[in-house]
Amino acid sequence: MSQRQAEPVSITVRIMGKEYTVACPEAEHDTLIRSADHLNERMTTIRRRGKALGAEKIAVMAALNLTRELLENQGVDGQTVSEQAAAERVRQLRLDIDNTLTLE
Questions:
Q1: Where are the beta strands (DSSP E) in the chain?
Q2: Mean pLDDT of the residues in the chain
Q3: What is the DSSP letter of 57?
């Protein structure tokens, strides 16, 4: 038997005073609401400190800022910052072990 996917539900979110209706799987409802709230907060902050920017420019600036943060969190070569630190620590331990063994 094939498993039937759940029908998407329509969610209305408010971003910078405008309402948008978005379809998403019911299981992602809470995540979508949190995402919209976060985006609204970021865009509102940009609008408050900017000079009479239009909604499109504010959206692009927010997207660029969020994308930069995402890429920083992903780190180099898809590794997170903590994964990079762990890999560097392992590399350093290997060097320490190799140096100790060569001294004996």
A1: 9-15, 18-24
A2: 84
A3: H
